[in-house]
Amino acid sequence: MRDAFAAHAADLLDADPRVAVVLADISADMFRDAAAAHPDRVINVGIREQLLIGVAGGLALAGLRPIAHTYAPFLVERAFEQVKLDFEHQGTSGVLVSVGASYDWAEGSFTHFSPRDVALFDTLPGWRVFVPGHAAEVPPLLDRAVDADEGVYLRLSLRRNAAPHGVGEPFTVLRHGTRAAVVAVGPVLDNVLAATEGLDATVVYTNTPRPLDTTALRELAAAAGDTVVMVEPYLEGTSDWLVSRALSDRPHRLLSIGVGREELRRYGTAAEHERLHGLDAEGVAARLRAFLG
């Protein structure tokens, strides 16, 4: 996904004079040619993530559409004050593109984990969140992000599905059932498909969880006994408030599956974290079967 992002961002720099890319050393080698071609619109501030957001906010005030990029915990958690002040408070917007996701580089330890990032964006009004599940989904989502008027957070990951889905659609229905509507966000889709094999459940994919298509969700839930399961590759329960609000006028059941709140201190690999958080196919299947009885 990072390769697809860097290549397409370079194309956007060539095609659109409004686009600027701001880096904090991460991925700088992937923008070397673009920086040589556009030295005024590819800016590397070094390992200064708060400055990364401040510079991007200044470029937005000057009328550009900045793309700020680094590891998720540095882009969102470390620089959240600047996101609030230099974008939100100033009434401007930009595109924030992260790598690392929740625990992609597990060997890098807790400093490189960011399962709370989407939950933080939910505290700010109007931000879109895009979570591709395959590298082929990245360019069209980046186009949408650059063309948008709102702020956009594009969350890239090394975890991925075998094939792209749902580009341009808020929801893609991949399987129909009557006992539950299971919403898979981004790169957890293949695990969800494996986990629901043989279950009487609707499986829905989205790579644009914010804004969540609550109108479609209501219709899907109604056809599945008003039982909803959210499977997300970030903090468990992040979307609970949206689902509950969408279905607040009628009784419903909700199960959230995501990254747990417990800190796993033996860092291991991303696949091991996925398994220990119950986000692999076996873990999702076990939670689903217990929930559905």
Strand order of the largest sheet: 2-1-3-4-6-5
Instruction: State mean pLDDT (0 to 100 scale).
Output: 96
Broad shape: globular
Approximate helicity band: 25-40%
End-to-end span in angstroms? 37 Å
Report the major sheet.
6 strands, parallel
Strand content: 15-25%
According to DSSP, the number of beta strands is 11
- Alpha plus pi helix count: 12
The value of Rg in angstroms is 19 Å
Helix/sheet category? alpha/beta
* Low-pLDDT runs: none
What are the secondary-structure elements, in order, as H or E?
HEHEHEHHEHEHEEEHEHEHEHH
Reconstruct the topology from this structure.
Elements: H1 2-15, E1 19-23, H2 32-37, E2 42-44, H3 49-61, E3 65-71, H4 72-77, H5 80-89, E4 95-99, H6 117-121, E5 128-130, H7 138-147, E6 152-155, E7 172-175, E8 181-185, H8 189-195, E9 202-206, H9 214-222, E10 227-235, H10 240-246, E11 253-259, H11 270-276, H12 281-292
Parallel strand pairs: 1-2, 1-3, 3-4, 4-6, 5-6, 8-9, 8-10, 10-11
Antiparallel strand pairs: 7-9
Outline the structure in words.
This protein is α/β, with parallel strands linked by helices. The protein is 36% helix and 19% strand. The protein has 12 helices and 11 strands. A 6-stranded parallel beta sheet has the order 2-1-3-4-6-5, with helices on both faces. A 5-stranded mixed beta sheet has the order 7-9-8-10-11, with helices on both faces. Helix 10 links the parallel strand 10 and strand 11. The model has no long low-confidence stretch (mean pLDDT 96).
Summarize this entry quickly.
By secondary structure, this protein is an alpha/beta fold.
